[in-house]
């Protein structure tokens, strides 16, 4: 479901209330989608839409996998990520890549392959750096994901795609 910066509007495990859902809600206002964001696959008993407005919508399909790594994302690109002909994909990995000590070289190559596949399909990409997580103690307890953030930023720059540092953004809310 992802982290939400709006605790008063939280719905457990529902991406509409996560950073991604809120980002897409704000994005919809930039392009005059009065219908807001509609989640294609809400959790059982969960909300599919935060607003009751009618009109054109941004549809969101959540392909999040619990404990997923960038290699899971690469697998999704090869199987089901493009089934609904998306205009845009948001790609965010790094937390479980860091926990599993995946090399940043492997992480970079997998992200690059995801970007390449999306471009082949004429799909826009936004890469998001991983959030901050507390892991261990000492000087690195909050920094374990930062090498993956920097790698994602480099891939975004090399490919001319938008990059958002979720860790930097979410640090205002405590990580």
What do you see in this structure?
The protein has 175 residues and is of the alpha/beta class. The chain has 6 helices and 5 strands. The protein has helices spanning 19-30, 70-79, 95-99, 104-120, 146-159, 166-170, and strands at residues 37-39, 58-60, 88-92, 124-129, 162-165. The chain has a 3-stranded parallel β-sheet with strand order 3-4-5. β4, α5 and β5 (162-165) form a beta-alpha-beta unit. The longest helix is centred in the middle third of the chain and has 17 residues, at 104-120. The chain is globular and about 50 Å long. The two termini are 16 Å apart.
Explain briefly what this protein structure is.
The chain has 175 residues and is an alpha/beta fold. Helices cover 36% and strands 12% of the residues. The model has no long low-confidence stretch (mean pLDDT 85).
Relevant terms:
alpha/beta, 5 strands, 36% helix, 12% strand, globular
H-E order: HEEHEHHEHEH
* Spatial gap, N to C terminus: 16 Å
How many beta-strand elements?
5
Strand order of the largest sheet: 3-4-5
Query: Which percent range fits the helix content?
Result: 25-40%
* Quaternary class: single chain
Count of helix runs: 6
Write down the overall mean pLDDT: 85
- In this structure, how is the largest beta sheet organized? 3 strands, parallel
Shape: globular
């Amino acid at each position: 479901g992802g982290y939400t910066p709006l605790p008063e509007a939280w719905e457990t495990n529902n991406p509409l209330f996560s950073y991604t859902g809120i980002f897409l809600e704000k994005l919809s206002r930039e392009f005059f989608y009065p219908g807001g964001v509609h989640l294609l696959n809400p959790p059982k008993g969960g909300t599919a839409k935060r607003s009751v407005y009618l009109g054109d919508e941004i549809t969101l399909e959540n392909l999040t996998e619990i404990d997923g790594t960038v290699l899971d994302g690469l697998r999704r690109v090869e199987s089901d990520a493009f089934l609904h002909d998306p205009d845009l994909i948001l790609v965010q990995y790094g937390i479980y890549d860091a926990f599993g000590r995946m090399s940043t070289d492997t992480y970079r190559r997998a992200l690059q392959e995801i970007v390449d596949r999306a471009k082949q399909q004429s799909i826009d990409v936004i890469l998001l750096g991983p959030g901050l997580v507390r892991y261990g103690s000492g000087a690195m307890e909050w920094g374990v994901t930062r090498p993956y953030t920097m790698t994602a930023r480099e891939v975004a720059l090399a490919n001319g795609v938008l990059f958002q540092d979720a860790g930097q953004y979410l640090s205002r809310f405590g990580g």
